[in-house]
Every structure is written in structure tokens, then in C-alpha cells.
Amino acid sequence: MPSSASETRTKRKRLGEPSGDHLSSGNGELIDHTELISDRDVHKTCYLIKPSGTTRKKAKRNHPFISLDQSIPETDSHVAHRWKLYTTTMANVQEKIERILNDADESTLQRVWKYVTSTQDYDEDAYPQLPVGLVLAGANISNHARLFTNMSKYIEEREGQKVATAVVTLRDASNLRDVLRKIIDQVVGQRKSDDEDEITAPINTVTQSDQTDKRLSYDLDLLVVWLLKHESVQKIVVIVQDADGSEGNLLPEVIRMLFLYRNRLPFVLLLGIATTLPVFNSKIPKRTMRMIDFEVFDVLRSDDGLTRLLDEIMLSSSTQLLLGPNLFRSLMRRYNNHTKNLETFTLAFQHANMTHFFANPLSIMLAPPPAIAQSKNHIVALRTLPSFKSYIDDLMSKEDCDIEQIRKLLTDPTSLVSFVGSCQQQFYEFISGQSTALNLLDVLQDASSIYCSTTVKRTRAEFYADAITGKLKGSPLVREIILFITKMSAATIDNLARLIDQQFDKNSVIRMMKDSWNISTNSGKGSHSKLISNISKSIRDFLDANLNPYTDIVFHELFVFDAVSLCENVFAPKFRATIEKALMQPSYYLGQPLETPVFERPFISVAHTLYRESGLLINIYDYWTAFHQTLAGNNDTETTDNASLTAPNEDHNDSDLIASTPSQSTFSESQTLALFYKAMSELKYLGFLKETSGKRGGNKATVAVLQKMVWDGL
Amino acid sequence: MSDLTSDQLQELALEFPARYNQFDLLNSLISKDKTTNPTAIALTGQPSSGKTCVLRRFLREVRFSHTWLSCDECVSLRVLLQRILAALRAIGTEDPNKLDYSIMCHNFTLFVTQLNDVLRALALEEAHFVVLDRIDELGEPYESFYQLVINIGEMLRYDGITFILISSSSEPRSSVTSTFPHIYFPPYRKAESLAILRNQTPGSIRSILGPTDRELSDVQLTSLWSSYCQVIIDTYFPLYGPDIQQLKATAREAFSTYAQPVLDGVVGILPSNRDSQSGFVKLYKINQPLLTSEELVRNSFVSYVQSAGGTGAIGQHDMPIYSKYLLCAAYLASYNKPRYDIRLFSRIRESRRRIRKSTSHKAKDKINGRNLAPSPFEYERLLAIFQCIVPEKIDSATDIQIQFATLATLKLVTRAGSDSSGGSSMDILESRTKWRVNVSWDIILQIARDIKLQLENYLME
């Protein structure tokens, strides 16, 4: 009986979305990456495994969203509208994210390219060292293959015939010869196909042109000969992807070889470093250090990228959906503690967006279709939102409440929809106010940092969550900044004015505020203090007016997405809990009714139940007896049915376990013993158990005992 | 029989200070006459003691037919053997630079046979020298080859070929007892190093200086250079010793900065000037920051970056915080014995009680643990320690494992038992794995400071 796992043909595909299942269809551009990255590359963000046999039945609707009938009965057009909203929002965001990510890469690529072309040729007197570019690519190694392939392409595209490149990974090269062979193959190979139309010639036999040339494939003299034939080549760029992943002495050896040949071959070495410079430094011997002349490139200034991300996507004028403070904090925590990777952050952001449109039927209200006023369900749902309820309560509690207005909101769908529209407008104003206020805080921090260098500048990402929840309003930090303003000298004011001019547009509120200060006209002591009080007052007023919590907005549930629980489990699945749940309650995953008798469960689950009931050390005989009793206990008539034993269920796919479970518990002792052994080895493999031979009870012979390794919920 | 007259020798010795004896020895040992030459000569001495350039100069002077092979360029012995044969076969052909690599040479027997063939075909009338430069830097063990070359005379049926072995490490043990001529190059002394450093023509000094606005006369240049060399030697000889290459590189690097005040006219250096001494002192004072800074002693990427003013460059590319904690935990797991774990990491009262017990035999451990190799630890132990040192509760086990895998890929932790024992002792199906940390104390301390972890509190020392 072939197991389902052996039937499935696994197909590896690099997918940029952790929740690949939802989006497996619409990720055309990501397939390119598979071409770039060799199959040997083991570092991918995720793998998508597709069972080949079951082609998914093509759905009638042309989008993956489903109607959320449990909360609000929706029509198909509503669902489609949500999907449309999602795609348009995403397309907008996606493009910006791509640009931010690429910009960071692009600038590095350009700097590296400039460096490569600017390196001097070998000259014994002036430039005797090997030029080396240290590319700090960050700890996210899944990016590296793409980055360095892009780098080599980038350089080649711009330099054409003048540069030959080779990208090598030390991880899968065992020794120096391997590395040299790869370099030679790549340099010679790529040129071959250009010049001589010899595409069929195997690239890895370097000696094809000359039958009498029997030089070994790792002899760098081959490159010297090749270089003589290709006079246009001015630089040979060798890119080492994983400079700090090399075994032992390999990298210094490679550097030494390139150094020795640098008078004949115009090498430029680029090293990809995933750790930090001090760590990398400790791996390079001083002797090697003398051979090189290096320059450092920092690829992704992730924190800059984060600020830009906040600026251009999460708090920009086109923002439709605001990321809630809790979710944002959770994302930031993951970013700082675990990944330090902007790409993962953006993916998480996109997923959060998708979840909002997928799971919230009211997300349709971001751009309501004209017919929404007719949809009774939506209107009712809108009225049940807490923010709307408290708004109505507030209106009611006022002395001179406009009863007519309230009645209209509560009864007339059209006026409610238009009220939502006005709330949305209010929301946009809120966002632009927040964004300007954060910008202003940035500028004020810059201005003050010159005078008190001890305080660390806080980035916008640190402010974001506090700002939108209104905690920043009147916080000690803001008060400190205001205090700084009151102490400003004339020069500082000029500096502040200059910074404001740099940072803000001509038409922005801040610029107008600055113009109203009339900085240039003041002279004399009295006017200075007047100016200062003027400035501090206007800034305090501005910050107070704009750092309001988002909860002040009616219907903020529509515009702010803050469901941490929906996302967190997707970003970082808790597999241990899953395994434990599967063992304790297999019916949950097997789709059986809850009240399944114990003996119909998978055997490993039975063993696990007994395991949970025992102490630290488990006598193996007792364990088996209990196991046997559980399985055979309720049916005393033991019939030997060997067929049930022959059913193999090697894999851990629980669905097979059902198949092998007989409908009636008919087990002989030998059968249960075999099943017991299997369950034990599986538990051991999962790390639940350890074999120990403890001497129990004085001088008696050793007793076979199992030691418990895992407790629930630890 | 010697080819150079003593006058010529004197001249060479002027060019190469303190190497008269070596020239003399070479001159008396080898000659054009193929019958009198030994089959092998060894030139030994510390790195950068002039072996290569003395020999090159000598061979140029006497115009012996020779083949020069740099062994450090050959990755393996096979490449070297092939190159020797190819170079020998090219002798006497119309284009000596066009080498014929049609021979593969896999072992010594084949090499000797083919060498015999080549020599027969060549029928040398005069002696030919094969120089094997830096034979100790061949990528592979070279001892047996060394032995072979020394004794090759007994295996060759045709004479006329002499191998000159240049090596800067001590001779292989197997060849210590064999008797063949050695020329020893003693390390240069301070005065000799100075003489070598000073030995530059005005033209080359000018090229080191690079393009300048103001032209200095040859006399001025030489005077400036020689005083500068004295400074360099006095400053860096204690650091580099007789390493001429390094001294030269340092001298070259700093010269243009050093000479800048002279070029600007701030300081005048003229031999005729009575104040030349004071001029030098003034120049030295101006340049003191240059000479005392560590800028020129560049053996680290980090100091370079910091001095270049890239303050943000280091902080930006940081590891995730938990990776740092993991690395610290790995270090603690490697350098603490498991039996101390409860005492160090547990908050249970009971653990404190046992402290007195083991203090008695603590005197035994005298070697500082940091100097020993890290001991392997189990992954679960690492996780347990990690939980203890992390300030907050960990929310995601998946991310931790990913980070650990990343650390392993970056070789910051290595799998124990996978490298040396060939994997035989390791069961890949086993659920427990052993690891060891691969980062030194300095780096760990730096990382621990980043995350404000008092690492010393957790170390048993």
C-alpha cells in the first residue's frame, strides 16, 4: 500500500508568501527566482509542496475569497468586491515595497560596480594588494543567492565584454581545487558561448579547444591563457557568496591564490558577509589581511528601509488601512528579535492586509459599492460596531443632542453610509496629521541632538505604535522636546528652520507654521524670548492636535486592522502545540467525532495518553501491559488477525493510521507488542522518551526503564 | 671555475647589503659546467630574507640557463610536476614562452621517466637550473617531493640539470640527514634593514611620492627618504622584525603623507642647510600622529572602518537580538560544565547549598578555560540555557530554530562529531544533536555587551 507521502512529487518553489496556500496561483514573478537559485541552495524562505495527483478543482469564481456567511450573509458580488479592493490596495502597496527593497539593493549594486571599475590594475610599487570588496549582506541568508546573482548580472550588463564574473559558494566546495575549478569554469564558460558559438561544448571541460593541453582543471594558468585570447576583459570579478560559511582555512587559501596571480589576472574579489565585521575579522588570519586592500559595502540599511516603509506605505496619503498598534508591536518584536529582515516584515505586512480583506466582511466599506445601502446585513453590522455605539451614546448624553440626527443614523441606511464616508475622511486627516507630527518630532530630535548628544534618537518605528494610540501626546519625551525649544538660542532656531525647510514641502502645515514665526525679523532680547514662546506654543498645539489616538475616530474598526491572533500563528507557527494536540486529541485532525473510543485512536496517541499519566521513569513492562490492556481490554475474545498487522504505516501521516485501525479491536498479545514497539520508537523519534537502564531496588538486576523527556505545556 | 670576479661580487653586495657571503657561495657552488654542479641546492632562511631576489639577481648576472617556478602558485604537486616538464620541454624551441602541456604527470616514477626523456631530447651541453621557489608553500605536503629532488641525481641517466630549492621553513625531517649544499640566509639586522630600505633611486622615490605640485631635487628627495627610512625602521622594526616586505609596504604607504609638509614648504629639508637637523625634527613632530596611530598597522577590518568614520556601518547590519542570545547561550554551554548548570541558571534555593562541596578540588584546574577548545553540548541544553538568559518569555519556537540553523550555516556554531570523525559516530536519525560554539571570547563579550548581558555572571571560572 503506497503511502500518500511517497506518491506526492514534491516540487520546490520559492514563494515569497509564508501563507503560500492562498496565493499559490498569483505569484508569477517569484518563479524567476527559482531559475536564479540553484537547486542545491538550501536556504529558501519557504517550500511549497504540491501533491501532483490531485489537481485542484477549478473554482467557478475567479478569486480565492469565500463568502463569510457566518458573520454577515454576503452576496457573491460583495465577496468579489472585497477581492477587488484587496487586489487594488495590494497592487499599490506591492509596487512601493518592491521599490523600497530594490532601491536599497540598487544603491549597493551601483557602489559595488563603481568599486569594481575603479580598482587599480596591479602595480608592484603602488597597488600590490588584491582589491577586495566586503559586502555586508545581513544575516538573512535566504536573500544572498539572489543578491549576488543580481550583482554579477548587474556588473556584466554594464560592463559587457570588459568584465568576467564568477559566483562561488564555499559551502559546497570541499577544498581549494574545487573553488578554483568553479571560478575557471564560470569565467571561461560564459565567454565560450558568446564567442565561438560552441554551446554544445561541455563547459566544465576547460581543455576542449586544445587536445594536447592536459592541464588540470584547477590550474589558474588556464585563465592566464584565456585572458590573453580575450583582450577586452579588464577585470575578473570573483564573488564569494558565503565568505563566513567556509570551512577552516579555505577562504584564506582562495585569497592567497588570487593574490599570487594578481599580476597576471586582474582579479577583484567580492566577499558576501552575513555576520558582522568583527566576527568576520576574527576568521581571517593577519597574514591574509596584508594581501588585501578592502572596501566595505553595506547592502540593506534595514532600519532606514523600515522608516521609509512607514513613511511611504503605512502612514502615507494613500494609506487605506492602518496597521493597528498591537499588530505593529508584534511585527516589530519579531523583526528585532528574530529576523532583522525587511523583506519578511513587508511580507507580514502584506499578509495582515490580506487577512483583513479576507476575514472581515465590513472591509468592503473602505470603498463601498453604490448598492451597499441596500444591503441590510451590512448596515446592521455597521451599527453594531462598538465605536459607533459609543458615539451614539456620547451624542445621547449631551444636553442638547440632535435627536433627529441620531434617529437618522439609526434608521436611514443612506445617511449612515454617508456618515461612514465622512468618518473615512476624518481618518485620512488623522493619518496625515500623524505623519506630519512624526516628521516634526524627527526634525526636533535632529535639531536637539546637536546640543545633547547623550539622548539616543528614536526612530519613527519606535514612535509609531505610541503615536497612533495617543500615548505620545503629553508623554515625557514630547515634554522634553518642548522644553528644548524653550531653551533654544538664535542659532538653533535657524538650524531648526533649515531642517524644516529640508524636510517638509512648501505647502505643508509645518512650513506655514514656520513662516508665521517670522524668524528673520527678530532682534533684541525681548523679541527672542517672545519668538521662543511663540514657537513652543505653536509646536505644542500642533502636536496636541495631531497625536490623538485612533480610537477617537468613529468606525475605526473599519480602517485599522489589529488582529494579532489571526496573524501571529501564521508568521511563527507553534508546531509543538500542534503535535501535542494531534497526540492528545487526534480526532481534531482526523475529522472523527470527539467521542472516539480510545482503542480506535492511532496507537501512538494511545501510548502518549499513557505516557501523560505516568511519572518521570516508566517501567517498560508496566507500560506495555497498560498499552495492551487499553487496546485489548474491552474485547476479551482475542482472535488472531494477522492482516491488521501487515498494514504498514511508516509515515507520520495520521490519515494512514485510520486505515490500519481495524473497526473492532481484535488484537493478540504479539500484535499489541509489535504495535507497542512501533509506538515507542515513534515517541522516541519525536523526542518524548529516552531509554535508561536504571538500577532500581538495591542489587537487583537492571530494569528496562524509559525516561520521560517532555511535559505538556512546558 | 667561478663565473663572477670578486669585483662583480662586490658590486652585487653593494646592491644587496649583507648578502656578500650568499653571492660568494652561489658563485662558487654553481657554474656553467654541467659536470661539476650538484643536483640540488637548498636556499633556506626566514621569510623575506632576500633568498628569491638574491638568486634572481645572481642568475641574471651570470646568465645561466634556468627555469623559474613559483611553487605557491601550483595548487597541487601534479600541477608543479607538469609545469616543470613543460618548461623543460620548451627549452631550445623557437618560442620558449609557448609551453606544451601535453603531458600529465601523476606520480614521481612517471616524473623521473619523463624527465629522463626530456633530458635525452634536450642533450644539454651547459648546465640548466630549475628553481623551485617557495617549495614549502605548495598546496600539498611536499616532503616526499623534497626528498625526491635531493636524490634525483641517482635516478637520472642524463646530467646537466640542477634543482635549486628555496624554502623559508625548516627542512622536512626526512631530509635533515642528507648531505647536499645549503645556503643559509640569516635574518637582516636593524642596520641592514635600514640600508635596504634606503636603497632607492630618486626616480623610484618620486614614483612612490606620486604626482606633486612642487618638484624636489634628487638630493632633497634622497635626504628626505633616508631620514624617513630611519623613522620607519625605528618605529616598526620592533613590530615587524626583519620583514622587509612589510617594512617597505608601510614605508610606501605613509611616505606621501609624511612628505606633505615639505612639499607644502612648511618644512625645508636641504643638506646644505645648517638647519637640516631642526627641519627633520620639525617634520617628525608634525608627523607624530601619523606614526603613532594604528592606521598603518592594518590587520583588522574593524579599526579601518571605525577610523574611516563609518559610524553607522557596523550597527546597521546587526544580528537579530535572539541570535545574539543564542550565541551567548552556546558559548555558555560550551564553556561551562553541565554539572554547574543548576547552580548557575536555576533559581532554586537548593542549588546554592552545594557550592561549598566542590571548592576543595578547584585548585586542580589551572588552565584558563577560555584557552581550551569548546566542548560539545546538546541542543536541548542550549535551549534551556537560552531560556534562562533571555529576559522575556519566548513566543515562537520556530523562529528560534531558524535562527539556530542560520548560526550553524554561518559556522558560528558547528555540529560536533561531523568534521573529524567522518560522521560515523553520528546517527543522523537521532533526535539529539551535539554542537559546539565557534566564536572567540572577545567577540562573545562584544555581543553580550550589545544585549546588556552580564556574561561573567554565568561563567564558572
UniProtKB/TrEMBL annotation, chain A:
It comes from the Eukaryota. This is Origin recognition complex subunit 3 N-terminus-domain-containing protein.
TrEMBL record, chain B:
It comes from the Eukaryota. This is Origin recognition complex subunit 5 C-terminus-domain-containing protein. It comes from Lipomyces orientalis.
